[in-house]
Specification:
The chain has about 475 residues and is of the alpha+beta class. The protein has three domains: about 230 residues, no CATH class; about 120 residues, no CATH class; about 60 residues, Orthogonal Bundle (Arc Repressor Mutant, subunit A), CATH 1.10.10. About 40% of the residues lie in helices and about 20% in strands.
Length: about 475
């Protein structure tokens, strides 16, 4: 019997607001000493009342609009009650039946739309670290993270493979980074993804028992966990074993999913409206204001690169893969953004040599020693035929290392292309005299000899000779020797 996977994702995104979701404490908890960012609200002390972070609500609206969601004109917060050491209050302020955003989608490269069921706001919990050694067995609690604005994006069960899951996650990360509401970095914990996986017979409408997978802190780990769990469930079915509705964790060391607890249903959390926060009214004027503030999204920017600049789908995808990379490209082409030949050259340069240097040094964009205008100036010099492609790459490396201006490097190192015919004729005559075999090959009809001689000219001039003028001179001199 053939089976297929049915996958839904729950993604938690930490928002990069200055303060926490319901208090004025700093939300910048990373790299802080444990338990130094605490407040009565996050700890649930008697008399402490929550106040909604307006910036977090607007960030959620931005995400919802970017995912083509509807924005609720009325939304409310609820208490999600469960007992765990990382939740000091014994409940989490979340949203249950009236989320802030609903019914959106993320489109994959196959044109398949992954439906978004809802986007809702909640507060993050504290960080619990378990210490298990031969001599010790205890847990440490760091409250700093507690109360950080957390947005949950829930899909419908529309995904069917780890490949689709990865593309969905990468698209979502890209959107979050483009609109600037979060870092969406899995490794630092600001982007966490849980997968709900079941299998069913191919073609059947009846879904199997759902299993939730947690503890995946890398995109590659998500793919590995999804693939493993699909195979595990298929094997269980084939062996007539019952699949239990449960939560399982991904073990990096063993590359398997491990049972953690039986899966809760929503009624297990005993949701009820948060009594300390009144329902939130979101009027259409506020929604329109947020809509106008949205930057150009990656999909729109990619379409512009393809349709307006005539770039290939591949080049456009590379250029929009990272918001900082794309912005650097945008700023570089600004002086001449109506010339597609110029834009195409910069696209190739950034996807090629620029990316090579970036990856080689493993630096961030703020550490690049020159700005987009400098790169634009360098390409402009190339288009004025003052330097060739080889010299351009040499100058780019020098700019990368020193931050010097392109004109200064070219002048100081005398890298201007040699186009003086008299100077070139003298050099080429000497080269031809020293390569009699190439002359004989030319007389024998071997055109490759001309390319060989041009190579010698470029070697002699360290790549500074104008190749077009040099070729013409070589041909003229060889014709006299026939």
């Amino acid at each position: 019997m053939n089976y297929e996977a049915v996958i839904g994702l729950e993604t938690h995104v930490q928002l990069n607001t200055d303060s926490k979701m319901f208090s004025l404490s700093s939300a910048k908890y990373q790299n802080q000493d444990p338990n130094t960012i605490v407040d009565p609200t996050s700890m649930g002390l008697p008399g402490a009342l929550p106040v909604v972070n307006r910036k977090a609500i607007e960030s959620a609206m931005m995400i919802g609009l970017s995912l083509d969601c509807n924005i609720s004109n009325k939304t409310k917060f609820d208490r999600k009650q469960y007992f765990y050491p990382d939740l000091m209050k014994g409940y989490q302020i979340s949203q249950f039946d009236e989320p802030i955003c609903y019914e959106g989608f993320v489109e994959l490269s196959t044109n398949k739309k992954i439906r978004i069921n809802r986007v809702h706001m909640e507060e993050d919990v504290a960080k619990l670290t378990h210490i298990n050694t031969r001599d010790s067995n205890y847990s440490l609690l760091d409250i700093n993270r507690s109360g950080t604005p957390l947005m949950e994006i829930v899909t419908e069960p529309d995904l069917s493979s780890s490949k689709e899951v990865i593309e969905y996650i990468e698209n979502l990360q890209k959107i979050i980074r483009y609109i600037g509401v979060g870092s969406a970095n899995m490794e630092e914990g600001s982007f966490r993804c849980d997968a709900n996986i079941s299998i069913k017979e191919v073609g059947s409408k009846e879904l199997g028992t759902k299993v939730e997978i947690k503890n995946m802190n890398r995109i590659s780990a998500v793919a590995e966990a999804v693939d493993y769990e699909i195979k595990r469930q298929i094997k269980s079915k084939e062996n007539n074993e019952k699949i239990i509705q449960e939560t399982r964790g991904w073990s990096e060391e063993k590359s398997i999913t491990i049972p953690q607890r039986t899966k809760e249903e929503s009624n297990d959390y005993r949701y009820f409206p948060e009594p300390d926060i009144p329902p939130l009214e979101i009027d259409n004027d506020w929604i329109d204001e947020i809509k106008k503030s949205l930057p150009e999204l990656p999909k729109v920017r990619k379409e512009k690169y393809v349709k307006q600049y005539n770039l290939s789908e591949y080049d456009a995808e590379l250029l929009t893969s990272d918001i900082n990379f794309s912005n650097f490209f945008e700023e570089t082409i600004k002086p001449n953004n109506k010339n597609n030949e110029y834009i195409k050259y910069i696209a190739n340069l950034m996807n090629g040599e620029f990316s090579r240097l970036l990856n080689l040094d493993s630096i961030s964009y703020v550490e690049i020693k020159f700005d987009p205008k400098d790169l634009s100036d360098l390409v402009a010099i190339y288009f004025e035929n003052k330097i060739n492609n080889k010299i351009l790459k040499t100058v780019l490396e020098e700019m990368w290392d020193t931050g010097s201006k392109p004109n200064d490097i070219i002048t100081n190192k005398n890298l201007v292309i040699i186009s003086d015919t008299n100077e070139l004729e003298d050099k080429i005559n000497n080269i031809i005299e020293n390569n009699p075999k190439a002359v004989e090959d030319f007389k024998a009809g071997k055109e490759q000899s001309q390319k060989f001689l041009l190579g010698q000219v470029m070697k002699e001039t360290k790549g500074q000779a104008d190749p077009k003028i040099s070729s013409e001179i070589i041909n003229k001199i060889l014709q006299t020797k026939k």
